[in-house]
Amino acid sequence: MSYPYVLLSAAVSLDGCLDDTGPDRLLLSSPADFDRVDAVRASVDAILIGAGTIRADNPRLLVNSAERRAARAREGRPEYPLKVTVTATGDLDPDANFWHTGGAKLVYTTDEGAERAVRRVGDTADVVPLGPDLDWRALLTHLHEVRGIGRLMVEGGGTVHTQLLQLGLADELQLVLAPLFVGDPGAPRLFGPGGYQAGRLRLTETRRIEDVVLMRYEPTAPGTGAVATAADRHWLRTACELAAQCPPSTTAFSVGAVVVGADGTELARGHSREGGDPVVHAEEAALAKIDPADPRLGGATVYSSLEPCARRASRPAPCAELILRAGVRRVVTAWQEPDTFVAGADGTGVLVEGGAEVVVLPELAGLAKAPNRHLLG
User: Fold this and answer.
1) What is the widest separation between alpha-carbon atoms in the chain?
2) Which end of the chain has fewer CB atoms at under 10 Å, N or C?
3) Pairing of β 172-177 and β 212-218
4) What are the strands of the beta sheet with 46-50, ordered from one edge?
5) Cβ contact 18:190 at 8 Å
6) Model pTM?
7) How far apart are alpha carbons 162 and 14 in whole angstroms?
8) pLDDT tens digits, residue range 272-316?
9) pLDDT at 28
10) Beta-bridge mates of residue 29
11) Are 13 and 178 in contact (CB under 8 A)?
């Protein structure tokens, strides 16, 4: 399954209340920040909100700048991003602004909610049933693979934000903090109770915008088991980018690797032929930088742009064996090794037989192959 890049966007008060954009309600963002949000909307392929937010706030979710809409049109894109909502029941107000402004609209719902949704908004929106329950992974897969959505902006509400973060499906959180206290115990909150990822999010940007502060965060903690998270995609993308740093070779692949602890701490990284060693492999280079007694290795994940090798002539132990010896029991890779240099290579088989979980993210295979095009014919 492949998903779009998922960006959560919200404004909150100092006491954690959500931005409320409906008529006669408190606005937390500043005029300059509303313009920033407009620019973000213009940059994405789709905007998603929950049906509860439509009922509570009656938003239009438009790109307001004529210049930005014109730029989208020049790029061959619709003037407005696709507008998406999610409802379990299909209980939608056909008179809401959401349905009568902007471009195309899409409703994701349950099998039970689909009939009601079609009756209410079927003339203005496409309705897609996801099964007996709302399945966020199925929803994101459909958006990416069927509707061609590469970047998705999620503007709320709190339930939607909570579910996407708890499932590890959010690639980025853009949070604006307003210098206000709301003080209303009934005001909506950004996130609800429940289990969230381990470790700390990575702060990637802070920016003052008039009297509010924009903070951008990325998840860092690896997933568990066979289910990939947004953090897994981030780290594997990093490994693929490391592969581009390898000195070129006509007799070996260019590979990058990152070892990440369960809490999202990067333990080490490496790439093929690092440090002038013509035969060192990426996973080998990364693991050599970690104390073998480091207790974090048992819960770590190795991200490798290419499947770890199962056999090699240049060193006594292949990378799959080195990973198992280190105690690592989860590996995420983008590309399974072709027969270019080793016929029937099966590092995945070695890892699985040794008790490791191997997750393959083929949507990043193109990035992993890019520095190796000269070897692939």
Assistant:
1) 72
2) C
3) antiparallel
4) 126-129, 105-109, 82-87, 46-50, 151-154, 5-12, 172-177, 212-218, 202-209
5) yes
6) 0.90
7) 19
8) 999 999 999 999 999 999 999 999 999 999 999 999 999 887 788
9) 85
10) none
11) yes
